[in-house]
Amino acid sequence: MVTMASPNLASKCSTAMAKPSLPLKLFLWVFIVVILPTSSFQTEEDDDTANKTWVLTPKVIESDVTHILNSLLDGYDNKLRPDIGGFFTFLDGTSQLESISSATQGPESRREAGRLAATVLTIFKHSRSLSAVKPTVIHTDMFVNSIGPVNAINMEYTIDIFFAQTWYDRRLKFNSSMKVLRLNSNMVGKIWIPDTFFRNSKKADAHWITTPNRMLRIWNDGRILYTLRLTIDAECQLKLNNFPMDEHSCPLEFSSYGYPREEIVYKWKRSSVEVGDIRSWRLYQFSFVGLRNTSEIVRTVSGDYVVLTVFFDLSRRMGYFTIQTYIPCTLIVVLSWVSFWINKDAVPARTSLGITTVLTMTTLSTIARKSLPKVSYVTAMDLFVSVCFIFVFAALIEYGTLHYFVSNRKQSAKKDRKKRNPQKPTVDIRPRSATAIQMNNATHMQERDEEYGYECLDGKDCTSFFCCFEDCRSGAWRHGRLHIHVAKIDSYARIFFPTAFGLFNLVYWVSYLYL
Q: Which cysteines does the record link by disulfide bonds (predicted)?
C-alpha cells in the first residue's frame, strides 16, 4: 500500500508545481505592478538629476568652442558693418541659419532649408527698399597710461592709452552655456571692426611685443568688446603768448574714417576716460590739471561725422625758465648799474662793463629762444628779455652821453681861454685837492670836478639842453628848457634805473600771473 501511494503523491506534487495556485499568481502580479513603476520612476528621476546637473555646471570642452567659432564665421562677411540691413539683419547670423535648417528632419531637407535661407538673406541684403538703414552705435572709453613729453617746437605731445570700443553685432549671437568667448588678436581680422582713426595724430604705433596687444570679447547676445594699446604723437596747437606762464588744452580727437553719422554713431561711456598714476608721467615742464571730453558733429564734403574729443589740460611749470632766464637777466641788469658808481673819468672800466653786459644779454636772449618755435608774435619771455636788454643798453648809452658832454666842454673851455689871454699869465683860483703829486720836480695838483671854475660859454654848450652852472640859467633863450647838471647825470641814473625796472617787474608779473 505504501509503495503504491508514493507514485501518486509524486504526481500530485509535480502537478501542483506546474500549475501555481491563485494566491501565488496574485502575489506575483502585485510584485510586478509595484516594483517596475518604481524602477522606471527612479530612472526618470536619475535622468532629470543628470539634466539639472548639466545645466548648473556645464562642461565645455575644446570641440564645443571650436564648433561655436566655426558656426559664427560660416557665411560671415566682415566687410559689412552690423545692422546694415536694418530690420532683416537678424537673419544674417549662422545661428539663425542653423535654427531654420534644424526645423526640418533629414540631412537633405536641412541642406535645402539652409540654401533657401541663404537665398532669402541675399535678396534682403541687396534690396534697400525692404529695410531702413540703422546706424551702428560704438561705445568708447580709454585708460590713459601716460602723457608726455610735450614738444613745444613741433607742437605735439605723446600719449600712451588703452583704447576700448563696444558694439553689438547680431550676426555673432550664439546659443551656448558659455556667456562670453575670450579671444586673442587672431580673431580680430575675421570679424567687422570699426574704422576708427585719430584725426590729430601725427604718428601712431600699436604695441606688438611679445604679441599684438589686442583683446577681443564676444558675448552670447552679440555684444563685442575690442581693446588695444596705442602710443600716439598727437598735434597740440600751443598758444605761446603767455610763455612760460601759459596753459594749454591738448586734444585727442577720433572718429570713423569712412562711415558718416548715418552709419556709425560714437558715444562716450559713463566712466569714459580714466588716468593712471600721474607720478610716472614724463611731463617735465608741465603739470597735469585735469581732463574733459566732448562730442560734436563735423561737417565735411563726404558727410557729417561724429567726432569724440578728450582734452588734457596742462599748466607749464616756471622753475626751469626762472633759473635759466629770469634770474640771470635780472642780475645782468643790476650789474649794469654798477657803472653809475664808477668815476666818469674811468673810461675803460665803464665801457668794458657796459659792452660785456650787452653781449651777455644778447647771449641769454638767444638761449631763451632755442626752446620755442619760431612764432611771429611776442611771448612773455621775449618781452622780459627785451626790456632787460633795453635797460642794459641804456646804461651804456648813459655813460656815452655823459662822457661826450664832459669831454666836449673841456676842449671848448681850453680853446676859449687861449683866445682871450694868449700871453697873460693866469692865476688858477679853482679849489684844489689836498693831495699833490711831485713829478719831475714839478707840482701838479689834481683837479676836482669840472663844475667848479669853468665859465658858462656862449655857443654850442650854452645852447644845449644841458647847463653847466647855476649862473647859466638866466637869459631869454633858456625859457622852457630843461636844465640838468652834467656832473649829476650819474646821480639821477642811480635813482631812475632801479625805480623804473622795479615798476616794470611789478606790472609784468601782476599782468601775466593774475590778469
A: 236-250
pLDDT at 262: 94
The pTM (predicted TM-score) of the whole model is 0.67
| Residues of the chain scoring pLDDT < 50 | 1-19, 33-57, 86-104, 123-131, 433-466, 468-471, 473, 475-477, 479
Q: How far apart are CA 388 and CA 51, in angstroms?
A: 90
pLDDT tens for each residue of 410-445: 555 555 555 556 555 555 555 554 444 444 444 343
Strand order in the sheet with 247-256: 196-198, 247-256, 303-316, 286-300
Residues in the chain, overall count:
515
Q: In degrees rounded to 5, what are phi and psi of residue 510?
A: -65, -40
CA 203 and chain centroid, separation: 14
Average pLDDT, the chain: 77
Write the secondary structure of 499-514 as one string of H (helix), E (strand) and C (coil): HHHHHHHHHHHHHHHH
- What pLDDT score was predicted for residue 7? 43
Confidence (pLDDT) at 46: 47
Cα–Cα distance measured from residue 163 to residue 144, given in angstroms and rounded to the nearest whole number: 9
- Report the alpha-carbon distance of residue 228 to residue 245 in Å, rounded: 36
Q: Which residues pair with 299 in a beta bridge?
A: 304
Q: Residue 358 and residue 12: Cα distance in Å, rounded? A: 150
Identify the three-state secondary structure at position 224: strand
Q: Peptide bond preceding 425: is omega within 30 degrees of 0, i.e. cis? A: no
Mark out the alpha helices in 19-131 (DSSP H runs).
Answer: 22-56, 62-73, 94-101, 107-125
| Residue 473 contacts residue 489 (beta carbons within 8 Å) | no
Note the pLDDT tens digit of each residue in 146-182. Answer: 999 999 999 999 999 999 999 999 999 998 888 999 9
CA distance 258 to 126: 20
CA distance 253 to 310: 7
